[in-house]
Write a structure and sequence with these properties.
Blueprint lengths: L1 H55 L3 H25 L5 H47 L1 H25 L1
């Protein structure tokens, strides 16, 4: 029973490590995506400034503001791509391996318990058959039980007499 509890604890800890690794990556993704959103908002602000300057002047400050906005948009896209490609590290693979190993051990223990239960069932069926045979013909069992010691005593006494 102690081995079963130990295995269950190992499986539980492995599951916790898997969840922790997934949450860690999700947190990083959310942070990177939020930062990309912030950069996008700055880019949108610069686009608004560029539109304002476009109405005010013809060519000078307009292209500068548009260039800054384009660079902000490019940075935001790169951050979103980076966030979407984040993967869990080797600790997740290790935790999955430990969990799978624990589950295999639990399955093996379950098969052992099932074999033991089947063996007990077979013994009980054999015992039931013996009781049924005895209850149907109790004289056969009694004669067999009494005849063996009597024949043993008879054989011993005959061999002692010859010596």
């Amino acid at each position: 029973m102690d081995g079963f509890v130990r295995t269950m604890r190992i499986v539980w800890r492995a599951e916790l490590l898997i969840i922790e690794a997934k949450l860690n990556v999700a947190t990083k993704r959310i942070g990177a995506t939020a930062f990309a959103g912030l950069v996008f908002v700055f880019g949108l602000g610069m686009l608004n400034v560029a539109g304002f300057f476009a109405l005010q002047e013809s060519w000078g400050p307009i292209y500068a503001a548009l260039g800054v906005a384009a660079a902000d948009f490019l940075i935001a896209v790169l951050l979103v791509l980076w966030a979407s490609r984040m993967r869990t590290g080797p600790e997740l693979d290790l935790a999955r391996e430990v969990r799978d190993s624990g589950l295999l051990e639990l399955e093996a223990r379950a098969e052992t318990v099932q074999d033991e239960v089947e063996a007990i069932r077979d013994e009980l069926l054999t015992l039931k058959k013996s009781f049924l045979n005895f209850s149907r013909n109790p004289l056969d069992g009694t004669i067999h039980a009494l005849l063996t010691p009597i024949l043993t005593l008879l054989i011993r006494s005959l061999t002692k007499g010859k010596e």
